[in-house]
């Protein structure tokens, strides 16, 4: 279950197709799709987001999901549009027993403190490498492309192998 920034930066780096070719299925929420719509002029590939076969969009229309969204909104302290994507992703992850993907450190701390399994883009890439979907060289190149798109990641491509090994990801 992925948040706005993960999909946005893959789109900005022109790597949505690579992500889609590497995952069997990924899911997000309507709130995230709506947030991404704000960037569709900058990243035309986002205009067809709901048409991607590998991306499942959770409508979050059950009472349980709406209550969870409200709870996560309060825990994350959402104001206006800020953190609504993370709140929706965390609610869906909680209700459906999924892993939440976000690179927002503050949101990650809140989510983990409240029992969610949360990981970031580096975890996703190293997991894909471990599953044989990408090579180490490819994930290092993706890290650099994502960083060039403005994504804040904890290491560069050349630093990734050591950084990931130190954290048990490789």
From TrEMBL:
Cited SUPFAM superfamilies: PIN domain-like
Q: Which InterPro entries match?
A: PIN-like_dom_sf, PIN-like_prokaryotic
Query: Could you tell me what this protein is called?
Result: DUF3368 domain-containing protein
């Amino acid at each position: 279950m992925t948040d706005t920034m993960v999909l946005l930066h893959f789109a900005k780096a022109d790597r949505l197709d690579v992500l889609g070719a590497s995952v069997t299925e990924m899911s997000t929420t309507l709130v995230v799709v709506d947030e991404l719509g704000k960037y569709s002029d900058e990243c035309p590939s986002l205009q067809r987001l709901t048409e991607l076969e590998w991306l499942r969009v959770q409508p979050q229309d059950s009472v349980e999901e709406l209550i969870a969204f409200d709870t996560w909104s309060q825990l994350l302290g959402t104001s206006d549009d800020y953190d609504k994507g993370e709140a929706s992703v965390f609610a869906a992850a909680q209700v459906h027993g999924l892993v939440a993907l976000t690179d927002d450190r503050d949101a990650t701390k809140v989510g983990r403190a409240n029992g969610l399994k949360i990981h970031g883009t580096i975890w996703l890439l190293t997991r894909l490498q471990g599953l044989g979907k990408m090579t180490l060289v490819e994930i290092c190149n993706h890290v650099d492309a994502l960083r060039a798109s403005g994504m804040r990641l904890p290491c560069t491509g050349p630093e990734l192998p050591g950084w990931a090994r130190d954290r048990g990801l490789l």
